[in-house]
Specification:
There is one protein chain. The longest helix is centred in the middle third of the chain and has 19 residues. The chain is about 35% helix and about 10% strand. It has about 375 residues and is an alpha/beta fold. It is built from eleven helices and twelve strands. The strands form four sheets. Strands 2, 5, 6, 7, 8 and 12 form a six-stranded parallel β-sheet that branches. The chain has a two-stranded antiparallel sheet with strand order 1-11. A two-stranded parallel ribbon has the order 3-4.
């Protein structure tokens, strides 16, 4: 009975299994995708219409230098006494002219020649009275002039070195002894520090005492000796020849080295006379300045009044422009009437200053275009 019952349960179970639908196996779940960070694309801006800078070499704009102004002229002087220049290098001239460390344009020098000063009566044309001398010196002081020595004069004329805007060069001709300088010029040295030039004749018959006196003055520093020939009473003028000029010029150099321990840098032409050959020899021997006795006018940097033509109104004044070396034929005023020319000298200096300032921008532009690439900017 029990067996029969177990059989019935087995049949029932098998029938139930056969009739049931099989339960579908769940599909495998795919793995969850891990989000991968995709690089964000950076937007590159599109080129615009604005042009990019050109880094290739570009041509420098060409600047045209302006025309330089003509040489300053004045109507104050005699029409035949015209300015002569002597610096050929335009760039060097402009650099020296506008260098702020140098003399201002329009600086003027008045060389004055003294021969004999007397406290008594005037007995010849080369003499001036002590009263006239002191009046001249006071007028120079009152009008702002300052005395310079020959070294300063050379440096100014050659390079526009700094000197007072109104300068005077006092030159006493003809081998004066110490007493002459102590009596007339020492007070101006002591009060105003004014030096004086002694145009010294190196004559072979000069007493040793005279050499000693002047050597002492040279050492004291206020009397500056410069050459005035050897024979002296025979000037180095037409007809004397180059050999004679050489002996006069070299003779002065030799004597100065022996007695003054210096070499002269200026020749004060005896009698104010010279020849073209004499100026060439002077230049070869190392003289840097020369002075005549013709009062044509004052001198400025690269500006010397000379004449190229004979003047019937002044037949005894030699022509000087033809030598083509203005620095060796500089004019000098006479002490007898120099005071009358003070206003003219000052007018020329003032007018030259105004003329230079009016043309300054033009000259500086020229220098910047033409000269600066060679010489550099102005100091």
């Amino acid at each position: 009975m029990q067996r029969f019952f177990n059989l019935i349960l087995l049949v029932f179970f098998l029938t139930a299994c056969a009739g049931a639908k099989p339960t579908p196996t769940p599909a495998p779940v795919p793995p969850t995708a891990t989000a991968t960070t995709v690089p964000t694309a950076t937007l590159t801006p599109l080129p615009t219409d604005t042009p990019t800078p050109d880094t290739s070499p570009t041509a420098t704009a060409i600047r045209t230098p302006p025309a330089l102004p003509p040489v300053f002229k004045t109507t104050v002087l005699n029409p035949l006494d015209t300015p002569h220049t002597y610096i050929a290098n335009t760039c060097q001239y402009l650099q020296d002219k506008w260098n702020s460390k140098n003399s201002t344009p329009g600086t003027v020098v008045m060389p004055i020649m003294f021969h004999s000063i007397t406290e008594g009566s005037v007995t010849n044309n080369n003499q001036t009275s002590a009263n006239v001398f002191h009046a001249l010196m006071q007028a120079l002081l009152d009008n702002g002039f300052q005395a310079i020595n020959m070294t300063q004069m050379v440096d100014f004329m050659e390079h526009n070195a700094k000197i007072p805007a109104r300068s005077v060069l006092l030159i006493a001709d003809d081998r004066h002894q110490r007493q002459f300088f102590d009596m007339f010029f020492r007070p101006y040295w002591e009060q105003n520090h004014w030096q004086v030039v002694n145009a010294w004749i190196s004559a072979k018959d000069t007493p040793q005492d005279w050499w000693d006196q002047n050597a002492a003055l040279e050492t004291e520093g206020w009397v500056d000796h410069q050459a005035h020939g050897v024979v002296h009473n025979i000037p180095m003028g037409p007809g004397t020849g180059d050999a004679y000029a050489t002996s006069e010029l070299q003779g002065s150099i030799d004597a100065f080295k022996k007695y003054f321990n210096k070499t002269p840098i200026a020749i004060i032409w005896p009698g104010g006379l010279f020849t073209h050959g004499a100026t060439l020899i002077a230049r070869q021997l190392g003289y840097r300045l020369g002075f005549t006795s013709t009062p044509r006018g004052p001198s400025m940097f690269n500006w010397v009044p000379l004449t190229d033509n004979a003047d019937p109104a002044r037949p005894y004044w030699p022509q000087d422009g033809y030598v083509n070396d203005p620095l060796l034929v500089l004019p000098r005023y006479w002490d007898t009437d120099a005071i009358k020319h003070l206003n003219a000298v000052m007018q020329i200096g003032d007018a030259a200053t105004a003329y230079a300032q009016a043309n300054k921008s033009t000259e500086l532009e020229y220098y910047d275009i033409v000269c600066a690439p060679k010489l550099g900017l102005l100091p």
